Inverse folding.
């Protein structure tokens, strides 16, 4: 198998040289992925906290809380525990929605969340290409699969040869270092060529 393929563009006549062979990627380990996730969760929590404080401020200053107080007097059968459960459920739904939007949008456009970008990581398909919007959304939903049995799916990164969690295996993605691995790639290319 040749190391390079040559093709000529029909309109311009330019020659394109394409490298052939396997794609070598430096897979991200458990600690770097965990640190990136902690940064991302802190960012999501900060956004949620800002929205929560803002909405409470608006409701207090606009008179909405007075209207809600009057409605609360009408619904005397609602206990404080029920009010707390409704509020907590709403907060969890908002927090999960924020996380879904945050991860999906940032994985779709650039392949990295702010935490992953800070640590030099990105999410790619198995062939090294960027993931699509649909693949990003399904990957985020698959986080639930990795976290359900006591986060065992995330611990799979410690035993998998490509350091993939269950959601990576399901979506055929990998988390890799975003820096260029040129020296390693050329070194590995030479070794592979010697055995041909």
């Amino acid at each position: 198998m040749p190391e390079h393929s040559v093709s000529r563009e029909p309109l311009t006549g330019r020659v394109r040289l394409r490298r052939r062979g396997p794609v070598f990627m430096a897979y991200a380990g458990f600690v770097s992925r965990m640190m990136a996730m902690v940064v991302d969760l802190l960012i999501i929590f900060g956004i949620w906290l800002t929205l929560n404080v803002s909405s409470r401020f608006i409701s207090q200053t606009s008179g909405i809380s007075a209207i809600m107080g009057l409605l609360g007097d009408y619904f005397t059968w609602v206990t404080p525990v029920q009010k707390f459960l409704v509020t907590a459920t709403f907060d969890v739904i908002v927090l999960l929605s924020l996380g879904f939007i945050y991860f999906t949008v940032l994985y779709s456009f650039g392949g990295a969340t702010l935490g992953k970008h800070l640590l030099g990581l990105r999410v790619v398909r198995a062939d090294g290409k960027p993931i699509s919007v649909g693949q990003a959304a399904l990957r985020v939903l698959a986080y639930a699969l990795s976290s359900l049995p006591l986060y065992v799916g995330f611990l799979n990164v410690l035993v998998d040869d490509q350091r993939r969690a269950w959601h990576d295996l399901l979506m055929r993605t990998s988390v890799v270092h975003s820096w260029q691995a040129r020296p390693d790639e050329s070194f590995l290319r030479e070794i592979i060529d010697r055995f041909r």
About this structure: The radius of gyration is 24 Å.
